[in-house]
Write the structure tokens for this entry.
Amino acid sequence: MDYDKILPGIIKKTDSKILLIVLDGVGGLPHPETGKTELETANIPFLDEMAANSSCGTAVPVLNGITPGSGPGHTSLFGYDPVETQIGRGVLECLGIDIPLDKEDVAIRGNFATINAAGIVTDRRAGRIATEENRKIVSLISENIREISGVKIEIRTVKEHRCAIVLRGSGLSPNVSENDPQKDGSPLKPIIALNKSSKKTASVLVEFEKRVMELLKNEDTRAKGILLRGISKLPDIQSFEEKYKLNAVCIASYPMYRGISKVVGMDIAKTGETLEDEIKTLKEVYNRYDFFFLHIKKTDSYGEDGNFDAKVHLLEEADRKLSFLKNLSFGSIAITGDHSTPAVMKSHSWHPVPLLINSPYAIPDEVKRFTERECAKGILGRIYSSEIIYLLLAYSLKLNKFGA
């Protein structure tokens, strides 16, 4: 990335503060009955007002036509090349719930799933089982599966159907295929070593998958097996503070987003489960940091569930609560998403996400609403998400002139 070549010579530390608000999966597609997206349907006067007083555009998380996972989506928003800097989902999940990782550990993101006797995954999320039910299942697994072939296994609850797993031992490699078929109604995929060095890991995971299904077979739960995803190790990357001279904090209720923030060296603020909790936390830590990453999750969850109306209502709720921004001072504010999750698709998609950047030095354009089609008319045009952080630095007057 050319930015990395010139940034060290022009970046400077100032007192101005930067706020990045990520409405996870915010982008959508028109509802077949109304022809309007979730953002176009929602009553979001504050976000619309922000858009009308900001420079707007759309952002491509990775490359045009490429559908990103949440990991690459956030890696890009933090200004790292999402192709060159690939951070495994397992690492993010484990760090997000404060499981310590060594460089030789293999980290895995797990989904408890409903799987029938024929090995068909009928519900990849086991009906989004309650977190307390998850804890009971994890306790059962922990008591009965502590080690396989000399490899120690740690499993912990994350939230709802999600869990995190760490393999600790010698000779482990993350180059193993996932068993997740990625859609309901399909059989479990076989776990296969992708190279010679990963044969031991694959063997352990095949046995782990088998034992978990045996344990859950007669339990009173919709969780009858486990999907093993994001099999990965810790990456070696430059920290956010080294790169941008910013003292940064992550404010997120979901572990995965705390995990990616921790990988790049941000502090992780202790916060509650709701957006009100996150906003309260931001106010409490406002004087201690100069970069704030505020994450809002449920827009993505409702999109993945195909719940168009719930996503609309969540956007409206977020709009009401984000009006607190009027009471705090920032050199620049960006509001965007890590990717689109249209409810009509029930999945992440490749569509660019709306973006606004608010600053005393931003030029308001013709955009009047914070929607996909309106932002596409904005002065920023279509940019890559990895460029947003550099614009925030510039709008906060943290970059000197480049060259003579």
Q: What stands out?
A: The first helix runs from residue 2 to 10. The two ends are 22 Å apart (CA to CA). The mean pLDDT is 95. The longest strand covers residues 106-115.
